[in-house]
Specification:
The structure holds two protein chains of two kinds. Chain A is mainly beta. Chain A contains seven helices and 36 strands. Chain B has one domain. Chain B is globular, with a radius of gyration of 17 Å. Classes of the chains: A mainly beta, B mainly beta.
Amino acid sequence: MKKVSILIFILGLTRLWAQDSLQTKKLEEVVVTATRNDHPVASLPMPVSIVSKSQIQTMGSLRLNNVLTEQTGLVIVPQVNGVGNGLQMQGFDPDYTLILVDGEPLIGRFTGSLDLSRITVGNIKQIEIVKGPSSSLYGSDALAGVVNIITDGAAARGGTFSARYGTFNTTNFNADMGTKEKKWSSFVSFNRYGTDGYSMGASTNKIVSPFTNNTLSGKFSAKLSPSTLLKFSGRWFEENQQQNFLVNAGVNQMLRTIGQGKIKDWNMIGTLVQRVSSRLKATARFYSTRYSTQTSLNIQPADTLYYHDDFAQGFTRPELVVEYFANSKNIFTAGAGAVFESVQTSRYGDESPRHQQTDYSFLQHEWLPQEKFHLITGARWDRNSIYGSQLSPKISALWQVNEAVSLKASYGLGFKAPDFRQLYLNFNNTAAGGYSVLGTEIVEQRIRQLQAQGQIGSLFYNLDQLGKLEAERSRALNVGGKVLLNKKWWADVNIFRNDIDNLIETQIVANTVASQNIYSYRNLKRVFTQGLELNVTYAVTRYVSAQAGYQLLYAKDKDVMANIESGGVYSYYRDPVTLETKRLTISEYFGLSNRSRHTGNFKLFYKNPNSGWEASLRTIYRGKYGAGSLQGNVQGISIPPSDRNNNGILDVYDNFVKGYLLFNFSVAKTFKDKFRVQAGVDNLLNYTDPMYIPNLPGRQLYLSLAYSFRAIPHER
Amino acid sequence: MKNRFIILSLSAGVILFSACQKNDSVAPALNAVTYTNLPADPPSGGYNPTNGQAIGVTNKFTFFSFATGAIVANTDSATTKWDLGFRGTTIIVNGGTSGPGNAAAQVVTGIFENLTTAPNSGFGQDNSRSASAPYAIPTGSGNGWYNYDPASNLITPIAGRVIMVKTSGGEYAKMEILSYYKNTVMPTTPTLTPNDRYYTFRYVYQPSGTKLQ
């Protein structure tokens, strides 16, 4: 019923000059995210990968989630409300990966994870993915890793226009223009993306409502003197969603609710780079960003308010970084800065603004005693006005054993600060059997109020035990290496283990005389994730390359395991057919929900610069996984959780969401270095699972056209 | 898609039970009896979709006696004829502040078959004056016999939870709740005409002594 499979025209994006071929350039690509300095990717002692612009173009991707979902070890998962696209890395939930644009964090995690579809990839130069904790450089949220989106700048005078049309009336327009002069350069790009959205299954309500968004970004840089560089960049984004839902309001009574959702997001970065001497470089950066979203639904035709929700967040950060190139073997990087954050939302009971401040400093030493060895040590100190201090050290080493083999290992600590919701949420469900959820900064005061009114039945903690929330912490080890079998074959492997403590969970802290539970947040859970990532590349011919990727993942709750081993409440399950209770062994415990034990991909790329033809076939596999109790709750239609044997944990006898395989195909031809036509189909076999995977629409076809009005090659 | 309709045929339960009472004097091999669909004040009008309140409930408990293996009339609420009372997810014992009897209960963790003896201690009675433990069988998700999932609104009996009962008659019984839904069919999507508040449980009643097998 979904899908109108009509092929459609389009106009595609693309810059004709980005013609580097996949198999040759991989090793020389330069990465900045891992160390904050430019480094060839092969020299870095931690797991790092790059997705280049040329690869993004060949794939025909439009939004960031389209690109990341095809990378090994990355899984795009819905937010807790079942919609949206967050990033799961090394088994961590989306809240635990830092997403940067040009080195500065994106904000707007109002349900915990960032929606990656906010980000257009039309103006991206490359995407850098660093796995393992990077809190030693970036502070909070960088537990699983960091994704840094490096946007395009001007490398020459020129510009591109592209347009694309596809299934669900999805349109995408891109325009960019830039100029590079001797002493300055500037670059402007604009993207407009619109879609009718889609619905699935029996529901007429759309899972993705129709929306359009606009992204305008610009960059300017000027060499003020031979040793001084000034850079300024900014990004402005707005999205309008047309929401129209039929909601269940009683027996045989449906309500039509109509309204708008709006997102606004802007940021600006000012950077001054001063080369003080041949050995000393200083960079001053100022970053400011603001994100706001608002949804209002009215009941029609009465036009009375049904639902309202707003959220606004601000983030400002001045920072100074100094790099000192002591000699050819030692590089020191030191930095200090402050983060000023604020949030204001209807979700926290009142609209009063909340603030917090983090001061930080970091130090990193890179040691290259000889060509074959690279050692990086570093640490960062964060001091927050609410949750206190964190020290995050990290050490990484690379050893080039011989021309064919290199080994690397890194060990580091990561942390994630309690978010605003965990601190300030003031949620009261006043219905019968209702409950309250109170953030830790307000729980004590609210309970005292209720006590004074004689409403507290029992209190399960001393009041001074509540309200003390610490950061969540991880310790992580990554060990791996690279083997070049010959010029045509190479393989990358990484084995990882993350131990995460202090995970924040809701817990009942009190109840009222009416037996309503009061929840607050506490540092409770201990989990681990461990596994292996393997990537194999084979350069079949000059024009054809094949890549295969695989991740094995175990993610388990340590307290559940201890409970099973000691014969606690998790060591039983009820046979769903006979209703008999049986003993569960530790090996029958599967682990955390929403984590697939096996994920992988297989990709074939063809690119012939002489003929202008290119094509790709990419296959993505996600193995079976368990659905948690809050997963997939789409517009009031809740789904049965995987647990079907009454023990509240995911074990091998539960219902799993079935594993699936997706096929994406694209083909493109470039004419006269000026025109490019691309056609493609995503989800070729039309795989859908409306109940459990609402963020996966069916088959989507597209056609795109692009024109570049000056074909001066970009410098790469 | 993954609905699993479980249909149990349990007609033999009561017959087996009365049969074993006759053999009581000789080495008693007690049989587990399954009681199906004990109504615990089900809402005849479903639930109010805006505030979740049950419609058409009586607010009365359904009383059960292990000795007879049957429901006791509500008019006998002030007698010692019953052992446990069921209303929604709340289970009361005929003792303490809930009834005139001396029944008591406790929730233990284990496999029903393997719990072969009634514990010597640990039994409690209802005490409505206690704010922290008003019921011998604790209410609230994860505290006693059930888990509540706020996303799906489903009540599931926790596997491995067994309720030990000292009856009004001073004898012992053990019981395990198997389902909270009529005919043990758990709904897969929320519905306004639910089939909840129907207990299916199995129990072993020992008319003399503490052995529960």
